[in-house]
């Protein structure tokens, strides 16, 4: 019997909680980015400003809890808890794929977080292949039903190709994004899911009318690995071959900057220093998924909140040590880039 979307969501959460689902042979390459230390910062920690804005909403820190789940009662509890964290910290919050909700509208409550997060920037979520099959009105209804501010359309061809029941036909993606960007009355954010966006893809997004993109690069959660852990023998072997597929997050950021996109950096962001480096490489926000989920599973809302606090403290520390008073200044901080990252830059970041 084919597995239901709900069963799949359950097994994704279970594997992400405790199995080795992160890249092992590839990193974000953020370790190849060095700031130049400022031994004489004319700054007090308290005057460092980490506030920013995205999609018309103010954020108290440049952070997003990226889309993870929905569709089951367990997922509903995770969404509500992490949305509370986002509201308390003044950061953005993304929901997981609403594909299951389109099939069963009764599942809408598992994505509803407005009661917990009345002022938060909340992002709805749907896959590109599902979005292609829906009318614009149907897509709009999914986001409207949960009071989201904008819609994330996720791109995950690598995951789909390893997943036994995954999509196999990715044609028409640009046409779908062009239609949604033109016809939806709220912004469309395009995100990868851990394999990264290249410059060529970013250029096609811009041509399609997209203004905000999450590069979600390699080095953090690997969806190829997650699917390989769930798969039968043949798919497991294929998953093993492609376990380290993808564009490292730092390389994806450098590739996608300068095109007028508001960039979000996710994929392997694990510390406040990673957040600071992402901003210095051109990101407006950094996004985190796995570590927030794991912190929540270990210690509830308090632990997830403490993880976010640690990111902010680390970011502020990096800002003082580079003499950057605000995120704009951090975006212009001098950087030293190591050899492996420069190889990606020389290759045009996938151009
Ligand atoms: C448990 C879990 C479920 C996820 N589900 C979705 C999803 O439904 N839609 C989506 O766009 N991304 C999904 N992602 C991908 C994340 O949003 C993010 O792009 C990716 O995990 C890289 O970030 P990380 O290394 O911090 O986990 C999921 C991630 C996790 C850990």
Can you characterise this structure?
This protein has 351 residues and is an alpha/beta fold. It has a single domain (5-344), classed as Alpha-Beta Barrel (TIM Barrel). The protein is 45% helix and 13% strand. The protein contains 15 helices and 12 strands. The strands form 3 sheets. Strands 4-5-6-7-8-9-10-11 form an 8-stranded parallel beta barrel, surrounded by 6 helices. It has a two-stranded antiparallel ribbon with strand order 1-12. It has a two-stranded antiparallel ribbon with strand order 2-3. Helix 1 packs across helix 9, helix 2 (73-89) runs parallel beside helix 13 and helix 12 packs across helix 13 (290-322). The termini are far apart. The structure holds flavin mononucleotide (FMN). Flavin mononucleotide is lined by residues 12-13, 16, 66-69, 96-97, 125, 152, 154, 191, 193-194, 216, 220-221, 266-269, 288-290, 293.
Brief descriptors of the model:
15 helices; binds flavin mononucleotide; 12 strands; 351 residues; alpha/beta; TIM Barrel
């Amino acid at each position: 019997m084919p597995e239901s979307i709900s069963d799949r969501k359950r097994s994704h959460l279970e594997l992400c909680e405790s199995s080795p689902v992160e890249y092992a042979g590839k990193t974000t390459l953020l370790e190849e980015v060095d700031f130049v230390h400022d031994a004489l910062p004319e700054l007090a920690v308290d005057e460092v400003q980490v506030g920013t804005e995205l999609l018309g909403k103010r954020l108290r820190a440049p952070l997003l809890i990226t889309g993870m789940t929905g569709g089951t009662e367990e997922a509903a509890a995770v969404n509500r808890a992490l949305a509370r964290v986002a509201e308390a910290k003044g950061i953005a919050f993304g929901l997981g794929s609403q594909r299951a909700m389109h099939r069963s509208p009764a599942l809408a409550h598992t994505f509803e977080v407005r009661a917990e997060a009345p002022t938060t920037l909340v992002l709805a979520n749907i896959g590109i292949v599902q979005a292609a099959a829906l009318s614009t009105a149907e897509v709009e209804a999914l986001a409207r039903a949960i009071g989201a501010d904008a819609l994330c359309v996720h791109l995950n061809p690598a995951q789909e190709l390893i997943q036994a029941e995954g999509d196999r036909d990715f044609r028409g993606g640009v046409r779908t994004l062009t239609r949604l960007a033109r016809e939806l009355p709220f912004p469309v954010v395009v995100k990868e899911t851990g394999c990264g966006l290249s410059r060529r893809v970013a250029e096609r997004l811009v041509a399609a009318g997209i203004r905000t993109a999450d590069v979600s690069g390699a080095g953090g959660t690997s969806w190829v690995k997650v699917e390989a852990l769930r798969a039968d023998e043949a798919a497991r072997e294929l998953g093993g071959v492609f376990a380290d597929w993808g564009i490292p997050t730092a390389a994806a950021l450098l590739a996608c900057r300068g095109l007028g996109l508001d960039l979000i950096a996710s994929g392997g962001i694990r510390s406040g220093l990673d957040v600071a480096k992402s901003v210095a490489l051109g990101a407006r926000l950094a996004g985190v998924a796995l570590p927030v989920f794991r912190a929540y599973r270990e210690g509830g809302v308090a632990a997830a909140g403490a993880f976010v606090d640690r990111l902010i403290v680390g970011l502020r520390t990096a800002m003082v040590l580079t003499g950057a008073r605000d995120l704009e200044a951090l975006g212009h901080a001098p950087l030293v880039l190591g050899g492996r990252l420069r190889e990606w830059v020389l290759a045009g970041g996938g151009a």
